[in-house]
Design brief:
Mean pLDDT is 80; it is low at 1-49 and 306-325. The protein has 325 residues and is an all-beta fold. It folds into two domains: 11-129, Immunoglobulin-like (Sandwich); 141-298, Distorted Sandwich (Glucose Permease (Domain IIA)), CATH 2.70.70. It has strands at 16-22, 30-36, 53-60, 63-70, 76-85, 87-89, 95-99, 104-112, 120-129, 141-143, 151-156, 172-175, 181-183, 188-194, 200-201, 211-216, 222-228, 240-241, 246-249, 254-255, 260-268, 274-277, 280-282, 287-289, 296-298. The protein is built from no helices and 25 strands.
Length: 325
């Protein structure tokens, strides 16, 4: 089943931020702000609880500098659309960039074309967890996300007609009892751990109620383990996990028709959307398998693998080096 954790806000729920500035004899603008508070899909200078990004501006050296503070531990990708009068930007719009976790970086800047004439601008932004620059390491073979020796049936695999379409095209659902230990399918850093929900059911009113754990991998992709048990997560943000480490307990939270574990690997495609990626798994009998619906798979022993460099919690780069697409 599709994981309905709030990785991004749907396009029609984007929170709009429009800042209208007029030139009045100097670089001291008359500021009027219009905030359309329709959701959590965009950011502004004073983000509400739960927001991913904080956008601030600074007037310096004849330029209006835009800074983005990523409030998440994970990489976040944002897309800015800008409408300008008598202004030019340091980049082309719409502009998509990936901002490393827990860092503040300059995104772009604006400057007046004619300095003695009025100017103004408005913009909208949209964002989603994940990196647009991530390139999946296709040599990786994932462990099954449960204990060695255990076997579970796949109720929905890749291209599942019920809910595995669009950004969840390459997701997998394993039917399993509530409280089943969930283990890391790949090494990485925990960038999200939510287990405060105790509700779920086959209704979209529960789609924001799924407990989950997100693990960012060394190639920038992110693995999501969803519909977990209330209070069952065993890891916290910042923890480094190895293949086979215990992450939490399976559950039945969020938009779900029954107890199961949802797993997928994804990256951002823009600030408005993400894309899931096909991966291969190792079982007790085979390696490099594509998991299919209707089959049961037994987890094998955890293989000792060569340690790969994992990204620091705040991302793999500093300053501006990671930004832009």
């Amino acid at each position: 089943m599709i994981c309905k954790t709030p990785l991004r806000k749907p396009r029609h729920h984007l929170r709009c931020v429009q800042l209208l500035l007029s030139w009045r004899h100097s670089w001291q603008p008359l500021l009027a702000a219009l905030f359309c508070t329709l959701g959590t899909g965009s950011s502004h200078a004073s983000p509400e609880p739960g927001k991913m990004l904080k956008v601030t501006t600074r007037d310096e050296g004849g330029f209006l500098h835009f800074y983005v503070q990523n409030l998440e531990a994970a990489d976040v990708t944002a897309t800015f659309s800008m409408q300008m009068t008598n202004l030019e930007g340091s980049t082309k719009f719409p502009y998509t960039a990936t901002f490393p976790g827990n860092q503040t970086v300059e995104a772009f800047k604006l400057a007046p074309i004619k300095r003695d004439a009025p100017w103004d601008y408005s913009y909208t932004d949209a964002f989603t967890i994940g990196s647009v620059t991530a390139i999946h390491d296709d040599t990786e073979v994932y462990a099954l996300p449960y204990a060695p020796g255990a076997a579970f049936r796949v109720t929905q695999g890749y291209h599942g007609s019920f809910s595995h379409t669009g950004p969840d095209e390459y997701a997998i659902d394993w039917k399993m009892p509530v409280g089943t230990p969930v283990h890391a399918a790949r090494a990485g850093v925990v960038v999200k751990s939510k287990d405060d929900s105790d509700v779920g059911g086959p209704d979209r009113k529960y789609e924001r109620c799924a407990n989950c754990i997100l693990v960012q991998h060394s190639d920038g992709t992110i693995g999501i383990y969803a519909h977990l048990k209330n209070g069952g997560n065993k890891v916290k943000v910042g923890d480094k996990v190895a293949v086979g480490d215990l992450l939490g307990l399976s559950g039945n939270t969020g938009f779900t028709s029954g107890p199961h574990l949802h797993f997928s690997v994804f990256k951002a495609q823009s600030g408005r959307e993400r894309v899931s990626l096909p991966v291969k798994f190792r079982t007790a009998d085979n390696a490099g398998l594509i998991i299919v619906s209707g089959q049961s798979y037994k987890a094998g022993a955890i293989e000792v693998q060569q340690v790969k460099a994992e990204p620091p919690l705040a991302g793999s780069t500093t300053g501006k080096g990671r930004i832009g697409s």
